[in-house]
Amino acid sequence: TTLIIRIRLTHASGYFPREQVTSNAFTPTSALTW
C-alpha cells in the first residue's frame, strides 16, 4: 500500500519519532493524524 510506503518514508526521514509506535500498530490512519 502507498500508505505503508509513506510511513516508511517518514520514519526514514526521522520526521516523526513517535511513528515507530504507529508502524508497530500498523495503522495508516494514525500516520495521517500525526
UniProtKB/TrEMBL annotation:
What's the protein called, per UniProt?
Uncharacterized protein
